[in-house]
Amino acid sequence: MTFWSRSFGRAAPTAISSADTRPTVRILGTHGVPAGYGGFETAAENIALYLRDQGWRVVVYCQAAGRGERVEDTWHGIERVIIPVDRTGWKGTSTFDLHSIRDAMRHRDVCLTFGYNTAIFNVAHRLRRTPNLINMDGIEWSRSRWGPTKQGILWTNERIACFVGHHLIADHPSIERYLQGRAKASKISMITYGAKIVTEAPTEPVTSRGLEPGRYATLICRPIPENSILELVKGFCAERRGHRLAMLGDYLPDSDPYHRAVMEAANDEVVFLGAIYDPAEVAALRFHGSAYLHGHTVGGTNPSLVEAMAAGNAVVAHDNEYNRWVAQDGAVYFRTAPDAASAIAEVLGDPQRRATMAAASLRRHAQEFTWEHVAGQYEELLARYLPGRSEERR
User: Fold this and answer.
1) Residues whose CB is less than 8 angstroms from the CB of residue 98 and which lie 6 or more positions away in sequence, other chains included
2) What is the pTM of this model?
3) What is the pLDDT of residues 332-344, one digit of tens each?
């Protein structure tokens, strides 16, 4: 018996009645819903809720820690298949993906997969002629933090995904152009990420952390060099600002030299708040901030930038093709620490400039990044690949 027949060949009855005639999508590749981990989970949750409201049956595969049997339940009308995995990190993710795909292959439903990190397993979709649409994220293999071995694994899986995916989703025009060098243009669509607009928020998450509404900027990202945190902190601390800089994220100076360098560059106007996972609290911190500092240098459409725009933030962003297309007139741009110092001074020193940029952020968000717009495009694309449609055979 081959690996593929052993892992994916057995049919099994589904817990849902065959009388259910709604169009069905199975969402793979995330930690599941409700979202509590990152951009993919937030996208999966919002797309799933939108599709539910449009009359779809939505099944989301969810990763849980520990051992045990798979469990099925529902969350806000969305079916969840919860798969326990007694591993962490890369091995845990790979194990979860394998079991999720194995379960999904028992059905003929269209699949929506977020990420290509384990695309080798998606060969099963092609062999079983099960339509699989893959959100290709950014150019993940190019991130320096992975190291050569993991970069090689990711590069290989990216190429596999481009070949076996029935349709590829790029989250940014630059990513779309990149993928067109690796797959037919006809099987690639550009659909961004979304964010919910924030029109009001409580001040308690702000004041309880010693911050004054309207007198601080935020910097929210994973603390790694490719996010330009050191340049931004040095730029912010180049002079007294009369504002605080609220840093969200886990900074571990005793174990990470980069974290230590960031903290050593900070003055007393910088406050390290640690990791905050409650979406409502993060939204409140964004909403009541005077500006958002965004140093991401790689990838496509970054969820944290879109969320800042949805909160009406003026943005100081790293100058690259990804950020410029997303933020446009809602941001001023930098490349070096001195650039950042000038950009921060321009934004924090001029309330009228901040107001103009904030309005531009909200206009740009309404134009491209609402969940209704984003999820609607996903629905149109998924509908083309429902069983019985010609596209599923491509």
Assistant:
1) 7, 118, 121
2) 0.91
3) 999 999 999 999 9
